[in-house]
Amino acid sequence: MAGTVLDTLRAERIKLTSVQSPLWCTVVIVALGLGLAAVLGSVARSSLTAEDELVQFYPTVDVAVSGVTGFGVLVLMILAALSVTSEYRFGVIRTTFQATPNRTLLLTVKAALIGVLGAILTGVLGLASFLLAKMLAGPDAGRDLVLSGEPAWRAIYGIPLYAFLCVVLAIGVGTLLRQSAGTIALLLLWPLLIESLFGLFGSVGREIQPFLPFANANNFLSMEQGIEFHWGAWGSLVYFAVFTAVVFAVSLVVVNKRDA
Predict the structure, then answer these.
(1) Which run of H or E residues covers position 205?
(2) Kindly report the CA angle at 199 between 59 and 212, in degrees rounded to 5?
(3) Contact 125, 30 (CB under 8 A)
């Protein structure tokens, strides 16, 4: 069993490193994370020259790393989804299943490999983005960029946890849909548009918002959303993790029942 796991891990590593898309996605994630942090820090410093206090901008820790959590993780999700849907698109999935008949093991190893690599990348990048924004903002505009208190720290160490779960979710969705365009559209629109639309539905929407998966993930990352949750930050992480596990479990059941 251990040999099968290692062989599957080795095969997935070769797949991941033999194409250019992971490299380009990594470059985009780094550019988004550090680029937005640099912009936020510079804008914060320059805003202090304005006489109107309403114009002055004092970024917080969760805002400084939003390039990673808000955009970088989305790119990581696309990469994870393509690792599945591309195999269906080019018909490679049949060969993959022949080489590794245990489909549950295959998808689990794929999710674990990309998830761990993505968690390491985003974790390091999140800390670097915070430090860059703090440096460019200066001591005055960066007065709130301080790792003091549990929410501020959670906005940093929560990034790799969030990234890992998002990779697992993306692979689950990609396995269910099997089509790149549809999977990418859903993964992008879900956190950016679909969940925000519930705020337009009055009291009914406000009742639903505490149960939206990405809203709970953002709550764990200390992002202010104006939503009254029924549990704390760690409860939100558990909720998002359970939601991700359910989607991934359903994808395992489906992929084992239908033809490649």
Answers:
(1) helix 202-208
(2) 85
(3) yes
Q: Which two tokens stand for residue 151?
A: 């929410």
Beta strands in 36-190 (DSSP E): none
CA-angle at 61, arms to 59 and 62, nearest 5° = 95
Q: How far apart are the first and last CA of the chain?
A: 24
Q: Output the furthest CA–CA distance in the chain (Å, rounded).
A: 68
| CB 132 within 8 Å of CB 34 | yes
CA distance 234 to 151: 11
* Position 193 pLDDT exceeds 60: yes
The percent helix, strand, coil of the chain (3-state, each to 5) is 80, 0, 20
Alpha-carbon distance 178 to 96, whole Å? 15
pLDDT (tens digit, 9 = 90+) per residue, 67-112?
999 999 999 999 999 999 988 888 888 888 888 888 899 999 999 9
| Dist CA 239 CA 212 (whole Å) | 9
pLDDT, position 89: 85
Alpha carbon distance 7, 15 (integer Å): 12
- Can you tell me the distance from the alpha carbon of 242 to that of 252, in angstroms, rounded to the nearest whole number? 15
Q: What is the dihedral of CA 249, 251, 253, 258, to 10 degrees?
A: 180
Q: Name the 3-class secondary structure at 229.
A: coil
Say if CB 159 and CB 120 are below 8 A apart.
no
pLDDT at 1 over 60: no
pLDDT in tens, 2-37: 667 888 888 888 888 887 888 899 999 999 999 999
